[in-house]
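Tutorial handout. Part one gives the primary structure; part two gives the three-dimensional structure as tokens.
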Amino acid sequence: MLNREQRQAVEHGGGALLVLAGAGSGKTRVIAHKILHLIRRGAVDPSSILAVTFTNKAAREMRGRLNSELDTDTAAALSISTFHRFGMRFLNRHAAAAGLRTPFSILDGADSGLVVNELMRDQLSGQRGVGERVRQRISWWKNDWVTPEQAESAPHDDPIQRAAARVYGAYNRQLRAYNAVDLDDLVYLPARLLADEPELLARWRRAVRHILVDEYQDTNNTQYELIRLLADDGTGLTVVGDDDQSIYAWRGARPENLARLRDDFPGLEVVKLEQNYRSVGRILAAANSLIAHNERVFEKRLWSELGHGPAIRVLTADNEEREAERITGTLMHHRFQNRTAFGDYAVLYRGNHQSRVLERKMREMRIPYEVSGELSFFDRREIKDVLAYLR
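Part two.
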């Protein structure tokens, strides 16, 4: 069952649509329902629908929802992938235009770094880490839609940027000589080909009639250009995002891309999903009070029908060791008072490195736990090897 705003987004037709989706507002559900609506309306070929997500997990989740609603052939015709997987399929189809032969190699960061080090062998003179920093700057430029010519002609105060500008073009030529691309090329090269080859762009625009993009606040400039080129005048374009949830500026994400949509697609319609299905009112009130300080173009205010909820407690600690003690101690105290099960509790943390001290404290307190999304610190092979040696 869709709420009024969700249904408005699903049934919207025509020009470009921005779905401004707050946390827990059912945005993935909206994208899946919109795809179903397009297909069931009968006027859309499933193969002309392109849905782009930022993680393989999100792509699998969306495909799983659609597979349960569609017949096998229809579901198989849909294109649901990450930007990089879409780019890989694109380059496999147009390898010659990109100066490649199939199959081509895809270099990870370490292999790309070796290519940079080889090109800079006479300049490095024993300086540790310089080659990697140069590779990172080239990667940044590719994600920011900057060509080697633009990088070389721009003034650079930083010596790493000057070195990267000198190497950028040679690095690309060396990759082509190896019949290889780096991870950034999987988006950069398709976008460049579409920008430089009008006939190729026209073919893709005829083939892709509906584009749906999730987590649009996390797009970088090159990803934005790829979508802008494919979307033509914006007919059939639906992007879902929330500038208040953008946390990846450090790796090139441009939350201002949400605002750029108004410039590139003047008829842009905005639908706000503000009802939160995940949290109680008190949590949302606290979130709204913090979000109010953000600089943003689109205003929204999250609300919930789940009641106001208990008070929020904020615990402070002098260090991570003391923090873990307070978390485990509070958990045990609450469990004793309320006679609950260990499985009723969850501990959320920002970075994977933070699990180690928490896991150690839980082991000391004999609290059974499961680490979600990654290996437990103590299950990692190198840690098990060390523990086995010490035993």
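Part three, for discussion. The mean pLDDT is 92. The radius of gyration is 24 Å.
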